Amino acid sequence: MKQNDFIINILIICGWLIPLLCGISGIFLKNRKNSGLLVSGALAISTLIHSVIFFFLYKGNEIIAGIPWLNIGKLNISLDIWANDASISMALLVSFIATLVSFFSRKYMEDEPRIHHYFSFLGFFTFAMLGIVWSENLFLMFVFWELVGLASYLLIGFWYTKPSAAKAGLKAFVMNRIGDFGFMAGMGILFAIFHDLSITNLASDYLNTSPENENIFWIILAGLGIFMGAMGKSAQFPLQVWLPDAMEGPTPASALIHAATMVAAGVYMLSRTVFLYIGWVSDFIVIIGTITALIAAFSAIKQNDIKKVLAFSTISQLGYMIVAAGTGSAGAAMFHLFTHAFFKAGLFLGAGAIIYYMHQREHSESDLPKYFDAQDMRFMGGLRKINPILFVGYTIMTASLCAIPFSSGFLSKESVIKHALIYAQGGDFRFLVPAILLITSGLTAFYMGRQWYLVFMGKSRLKNNTSFKLQSLSTSDNKQLIFPIAILALLSLWIPFSINPFHANEISLFSSLTSYPQNIEYSAPTWLPATAVILTIIGLSAAIYGLTRRRISYASPTFTSKTPFLKLSREQLYFNDFYNLSIVPGTIKLGRFLEKVDMKVIDGILHAITIGTVIIGQITKVIEKYFIDGMVRMVAYISGVTGKITRQMQGGRIQLYILYAVISIVFLMLMFYR
Amino acid sequence: MLLAADISVYIDEIIRSLPLLTTEYTLVLSIIAIIVMDLLFGKENPQLLYMAATTGLLVALIASINDWNTVEGPQNIFENMIRVNRLSLFLSILLIIATLLTILITSFEKPFKEEKKGEGEYFSLLTLITLGSILMVKANHFLMFFLALETVSMGSYLIAGFKFDRKGSEGAMKYVLFGAFASAIMLYGISLLYGYTNSFGFIDLTEIAAQGRQIDFGLGFALIMIISGLFFKISIFPFHVWVPDVYKAAPTSITAFFSIVPKIAGLMMMFNIVNRMGINDLEISSISLHLDEMLGIAAIFTLIVANFSAIWQKSGKRMMAYSSISHAGFMMIAILSLTEMGLYALLFYIFIYILMNYGVFFILIKLENATGSDEISDFKGMGKAAPVASTALVILMISLTGLPPTAGFTAKFILFTTVWENFELSGQYIYLFLLLIGLGISVVALFYYLRIPYFMYFKESEGKREPVTFNLFELIFLLFLTTPIFLLFFQPDWLFDVINSINFASN
């Protein structure tokens, strides 16, 4: 058994470091194109290693291994990895999706001159993300948390010459920093109380903490702080605004980072530290998750950018996961994380393929509309004909996101809403939570239906010409684009997670997804999935009906809604404007004020000190000139005189030394003599 | 008249003792080899001498490490003349490494490259001093101790004059005269001690002493004389006056050697004598003098005198001489400690001190080669001309001052912690004074240590400076000296694990 653990540890380290090392060495390759192959290969090996661990080696025992790092006083931090079902399957997920995305990127980014940077960032990101997955220690996790943030920043701002991309990267960074402030504060409190940041030790400490503990207020607050970290990373209200802007990055990177894995880091962290959220913090988490799910779904309704719709849907789905984690069911959260990771990564890759195709059109067709934008759905339409695999795959994954039966999304979303329902039995206004989640799933169906119809159905709106036919995107030429989508679409069906398409076996599933297994399975009332499905169908049909009724055949700037209510959706509830008008200028004003304080007060004090020092310097100068120098001159005079006396003796100085030493020793001996 | 049985006992004793001194034989053999090689082909191929010396030391190093791995408890050999234990083996490893470093920086120094004079003598003397130092560390008997000490001293007198100019000879002469004086005092002290205790061993005097650990004036006087001789060796006030003159006059690499090898040996000797004879606890009743107080006050004076004198120095080498006096004062504080933490603090300090000092002297050699002088004011504008050297020097100086994030800080921090523990343990105010003076002196130290970087970076040179370059080997050497200074700040456990394996109780 021990030996088995050892092998697993070694493999984990290999799978962890290989992407990083290959990413770094990719920078130095002579032929930059090869860096793509190198990193893709590295990620594939990493996936292979993780799947070997997952399917063959791992025997179900918790493995905590590592080396001590810092031992200063009470601060003991060790670099430990914590391998159990949850982390191994998460690592497998991360490396698997990263592999698919990197293969996809090789085609998508083929004309990019800085492709080697892109792939090294990808390798670096995978390394950092796996760091979060394996960390046993909150401190270590925080280190990788920041590295992941850095990787995300680098990839959002990948086209840094574009002002909007640079700005989006900055925004993501700042928003995450706000959350990280909470994370750090939480860690500080935990360390002050428990003198330990190891998650497993903290878990047992929490078990022994009674509600009468004198520090209970701080302990609860620590949970809130750590949750703030998750709010930043998983784009929860009110820090959600960075994620839609993050779509400025390359689309495959968005698929990996801003849809499937990194934003899920918050949820994963919550599932690892689920014991931390006690008292009112868990209610707070549920409320935040619910609000996020609703407003993000609402904002998605009127977006025209294909990636923005997906971005908002990501935020909304993350809200679901956060709700599940808040209700104490880390299993449901992780389940939804997994299904979501597959279909959302697939949707993004599909969007990437569509954008790739639209860019091709931009270069090959003439007389395109004036405001053409490759990502704008208003210029699409009729794309079902370009590639059947893309169409079918995208449809399956859309169905999965809308939680239509026979999809994986149906299983996990049902599980989440079911746990919200159980939570609602706690009374008060808690029934609002499942109700809002159900409404949100209707909205989800609406905006996804709208997207699906706008992109694939109808006729092409690219040209004002009914006989215009779109060229096809052949599978054989674009294998690297189509295959990852096909694989992810297959994984979005119900089969990988449960044999029964209507209900998943939660006990076995959750035990392999969470660090703290749940043993009780609740059965949902039948009306719950039924209602969800009905709402979904209503949403879908409303979207499709609305669009068919308008019969738009050619894209034009008037193709936007003027209704104030829907305008609210298009402008994302004016969150950005709110921040730009209130908090941003406020912060800048505060900064200016502090600058003034610095200039006037602090500098003033410094000037005063300087002047004081100069005055003292002048005084000491006078003293030195007449007093010290006088003494020095006196000493010199005396030495001179002594020198004259001793000069007669040859090498007089050494005798003087000896005399001086003897006198001193006698002095030392007799100084205590009484 | 010896009986046959007695002889066989002696032979048995010798046979038992011989295997524990492999390091020493290796060094003796290498000294002989160097002399012979110098006679045969030293003039044509001086590199051979370098190689012979280095090889000898490396073999000795391996022998020491081998002993370190095998020797468990302390072994008294040659009728208790010599005691081999893990502490002494650890130090002999350090001493040999220090000598190797000396040989390395010698090869960088200009005069040696050009003059080709006395190289055979130089290396044999270097090895001889190392041999004496190792025996000093291992000695458990005053005769052995005196012999070893004189081996070191004689070698040092000779090697100090290796600049072969008027100043060098003058410095060496001063060294001889002062050294002879100190040796004489010490020898007189040893003979008095023999008269009182009828033994040359390092016996525990607290058992002989009367009630209240009091000893009479004669014995106390003998002890003070012995300690004075050691004070000379490790340059503690008031026997430190020779240091700046000699250090300034000697070639820089030899200055580096002097500031490390004989000094460490002397310090460990001091530690062994103080510890094994229980000198810390004794009081000379007739002049009401506690010996630990006297040692403490000597350390305090050393710190004050050395640091305040260092501020006024114009020459980099003289400044480093005072700096080495000051560090001896700090290490003296560790010797006074009552707990085993003192030993650990001392060993840690010694280790870091070796790294820092060799680094600084190496850079001084480079700067000396470039500017042709060791005056601090001549280093103006070197910050631009020698960026690598300047940066490394700043790091080393910060470490010498004892500021984070360097291991110099860790060493001082552990030292002061020990002193504070002692104060809490014994309640004697001497420890509090040591702590306060030590802290205050660290502030003073900042002024003179950072003076060299100040001149290098903030003063422009009059003419244009030729850039000072390092070859790969020198860079590696510099990196080897400076990296541990950072590493051991962040991860002092690496060194402490080694030091902790030395059992304090079995010394």
From TrEMBL, chain A:
<protein>
    <submittedName>
        <fullName>NADH-quinone oxidoreductase subunit L</fullName>
        <ecNumber>1.6.5.-</ecNumber>
    </submittedName>
</protein>
<dbReference type="InterPro" id="IPR018393">
    <property type="entry name" value="NADHpl_OxRdtase_5_subgr"/>
</dbReference>
<feature type="transmembrane region" description="Helical">
    <location>
        <begin position="181"/>
        <end position="203"/>
    </location>
</feature>
<keyword id="KW-0812">Transmembrane</keyword>
<feature type="transmembrane region" description="Helical">
    <location>
        <begin position="215"/>
        <end position="232"/>
    </location>
</feature>
<feature type="transmembrane region" description="Helical">
    <location>
        <begin position="654"/>
        <end position="673"/>
    </location>
</feature>
<feature type="transmembrane region" description="Helical">
    <location>
        <begin position="341"/>
        <end position="358"/>
    </location>
</feature>
<feature type="transmembrane region" description="Helical">
    <location>
        <begin position="527"/>
        <end position="547"/>
    </location>
</feature>
<feature type="transmembrane region" description="Helical">
    <location>
        <begin position="310"/>
        <end position="335"/>
    </location>
</feature>
<feature type="transmembrane region" description="Helical">
    <location>
        <begin position="253"/>
        <end position="271"/>
    </location>
</feature>
<dbReference type="GO" id="GO:0016491">
    <property type="term" value="F:oxidoreductase activity"/>
</dbReference>
<feature type="transmembrane region" description="Helical">
    <location>
        <begin position="6"/>
        <end position="29"/>
    </location>
</feature>
<keyword id="KW-0560">Oxidoreductase</keyword>
<feature type="transmembrane region" description="Helical">
    <location>
        <begin position="481"/>
        <end position="499"/>
    </location>
</feature>
<feature type="transmembrane region" description="Helical">
    <location>
        <begin position="140"/>
        <end position="160"/>
    </location>
</feature>
<keyword id="KW-0472">Membrane</keyword>
<feature type="domain" description="NADH-Ubiquinone oxidoreductase (complex I) chain 5 N-terminal">
    <location>
        <begin position="69"/>
        <end position="119"/>
    </location>
</feature>
<feature type="transmembrane region" description="Helical">
    <location>
        <begin position="277"/>
        <end position="298"/>
    </location>
</feature>
<dbReference type="InterPro" id="IPR001750">
    <property type="entry name" value="ND/Mrp_TM"/>
</dbReference>
<dbReference type="Pfam" id="PF00662">
    <property type="entry name" value="Proton_antipo_N"/>
</dbReference>
<dbReference type="InterPro" id="IPR001516">
    <property type="entry name" value="Proton_antipo_N"/>
</dbReference>
<feature type="transmembrane region" description="Helical">
    <location>
        <begin position="117"/>
        <end position="134"/>
    </location>
</feature>
From TrEMBL, chain B:
<feature type="transmembrane region" description="Helical">
    <location>
        <begin position="217"/>
        <end position="242"/>
    </location>
</feature>
<feature type="transmembrane region" description="Helical">
    <location>
        <begin position="429"/>
        <end position="450"/>
    </location>
</feature>
<keyword id="KW-1003">Cell membrane</keyword>
<comment type="similarity">
    <text>Belongs to the complex I subunit 2 family.</text>
</comment>
<keyword id="KW-0874">Quinone</keyword>
<feature type="transmembrane region" description="Helical">
    <location>
        <begin position="143"/>
        <end position="164"/>
    </location>
</feature>
<dbReference type="InterPro" id="IPR001750">
    <property type="entry name" value="ND/Mrp_TM"/>
</dbReference>
<dbReference type="Pfam" id="PF00361">
    <property type="entry name" value="Proton_antipo_M"/>
</dbReference>
<feature type="transmembrane region" description="Helical">
    <location>
        <begin position="319"/>
        <end position="338"/>
    </location>
</feature>
<feature type="transmembrane region" description="Helical">
    <location>
        <begin position="48"/>
        <end position="66"/>
    </location>
</feature>
<protein>
    <recommendedName>
        <fullName>NADH-quinone oxidoreductase subunit N</fullName>
        <ecNumber>7.1.1.-</ecNumber>
    </recommendedName>
</protein>
<dbReference type="InterPro" id="IPR010096">
    <property type="entry name" value="NADH-Q_OxRdtase_suN/2"/>
</dbReference>
<keyword id="KW-1133">Transmembrane helix</keyword>
<keyword id="KW-0520">NAD</keyword>
<comment type="subunit">
    <text>NDH-1 is composed of 14 different subunits. Subunits NuoA, H, J, K, L, M, N constitute the membrane sector of the complex.</text>
</comment>
<feature type="transmembrane region" description="Helical">
    <location>
        <begin position="294"/>
        <end position="312"/>
    </location>
</feature>
<feature type="transmembrane region" description="Helical">
    <location>
        <begin position="86"/>
        <end position="108"/>
    </location>
</feature>
<keyword id="KW-1278">Translocase</keyword>
<keyword id="KW-0472">Membrane</keyword>
<feature type="transmembrane region" description="Helical">
    <location>
        <begin position="254"/>
        <end position="274"/>
    </location>
</feature>
<feature type="transmembrane region" description="Helical">
    <location>
        <begin position="120"/>
        <end position="137"/>
    </location>
</feature>
<feature type="transmembrane region" description="Helical">
    <location>
        <begin position="344"/>
        <end position="365"/>
    </location>
</feature>
